[in-house]
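User: Fold this, then the next.

Assistant: Folding the first:
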Amino acid sequence: FSDFPMPEEYPNFPNHRQIAQYFDAYADHFGLRDLITFRTQVTRIEPAAAGGYNVSTRHLDSGAEETRHYRAVLVCNGHHWQPKIPDFPGEFRGETTHSRNYRNPQGLEGLNVLVVGIGNSGVDIACETAVTANQVYLSTRRGAHVMPRYVFGRPIDKFTTPLSSRLPLALQSAALSWMVKLDRGDQEKFGIPKPAHPFTAAHPTISSELPEMVADGRVIIKPNIAELAGDKVRFTDGSVEAIDVIIYATGYKISFPFFADDFMQAEENVIPLYRKVAPLDQPNLYFIGLVQPLGPIMPLAELQAKWAALLLTGQAALPDKATMEAAIAADQAKLRKRYVNSTRHTIQVDFFPYKRELEREMRDGRKRAR
């Protein structure tokens, strides 16, 4: 966050424990713990007749239930918590789980493990389990461009700058492809199939380990699953493998269990929000962090929160509904044109263009509020 830099000793890619420690330090530095009610589940949020929202909660320890009225609600429940598991023909007799439940490779030693999905979680799990498993298979429907963490000795995200983000998308894609090939070589030479879509048409998969794991045979790339058959899995290329454990790294459903179905839901992971924050017809309801950025999410969530604060205090105002509807439609059309058809890409944003969009919205919103 802009007002609390990460420790200087942190690496370029902090692990999850370091991120958690950073959040704890942030809360302690700004005295936020006294303002937070912990171990409390939000069970229902409903619009109140007189305005605002009635929020019902249940305490996880005592079971005590309570309903309070709030003038505004900020929804920050994220989008990586309700697993999405595909339905394949047949039955599997082994163990199945989702990447959400994965913590470490303990218990997978000596087993044949199938990881479904070649996104970042799937690739990380495949590489980690391959160290001690008998064999790891990585199943993918369309493949992915696998990019290393570092290119020419620099973190790969350092090559995306405010200036480069203004270049035509085709040029950005070509430049990225050229840099990765020059630094690491063609991924097909390692045994990773090349997808049909360009670099910038899908959320990037970043792994420095996967090419070597595949080249060494510790991870074997497989196409999509055709059928589950007891302790075996048949793939769309006709191959059959004996599998002990399937780990589905197949993404998540965007879900709001505290809203009634007729109030606010995300069908096929699509939710119409102005600038990915504000609904059309629910005043003083804002969504923070409901984006999938090409880059870090925390600075963008910070800007979203600042914009929401301006709106809540009357220092900024939203445009009229017709303007918001047109902006939402244009944004969704842009996503459909750029990305491969997948529920994974419905909340995708580019870091610098979206940052500029939020900053422009705050400036324009201040003018509208005058």
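Now the next one, as you asked:
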Amino acid sequence: MKKYWWLLPGGILIFLIRGYAEISVQELLKKTAPLHPTSPGRRQTIPASKQPELPGMVYIPEGEFIMGSNEGFAEERPAHIVYLKGFYIDRYEVTNAQYERFCRATGNPVPPHWKNDTCRPEEKNYPVVNVSYYDALAYARWAGKRLPTEEEWEKAGRGCDGRIYPWGNEWQANSANVSYWFGFGFPRPVGSYPAGASPYGVEDLAGNVREWTGSYFLPYAGNSGFNPAYGKELIVIRGGSFSKSRSFSFVFRRDAAKPETRAADLGFRCAR
């Protein structure tokens, strides 16, 4: 069995086993021991980091994790092992209050649905939405941060055991704000679903609003399938939302849009 390695910008190292179509995530896990192994049926919790704490952020330690899925859509294949350097990511999505401070300080236009150039007082702690990729990028730079790559986003939500939801492998209705039939049909304040936290303690990844990343929508290494939608004209979007079904809550799910796109269920979080 042949093995291949790719070194991507940002210190991302990808490992692919040829013949991935016949290799399940479970088999990949057998070949690569998790950095933080857990007993079957137990919730994985990552030990506290010795890195300096940054307000509102969570440190994700360096190491390997399984990215993608052999059972997902074509653009989510193959399941492969990725090595990342350590990084920080926001525990919650950027809120209306945080984004409003940015707009006041820089003159950046507020989201088009705000009345009188301000968000509703009762929605200060809701995730900001109706922002383009360019808006998200500008906010991140103003805050001294950046947008997470899609690799970083997936590791922050998945941990090292190949799970399909941030909390495990079984759906839990109290863990994410998703779809009109299962959720509220509109955003909720960030942090409203602590049961849906990832192994690292990152919240709202499986629902509430979808999130811009800093990555182009490109095929994974080893994916030979042609998709005309691939390209640097599209930016990867990750995460579930209040307007999507729970199938969008899979941590390996990929979506994409043009960078000028705005949507009522599309926001972002930052990384460092």
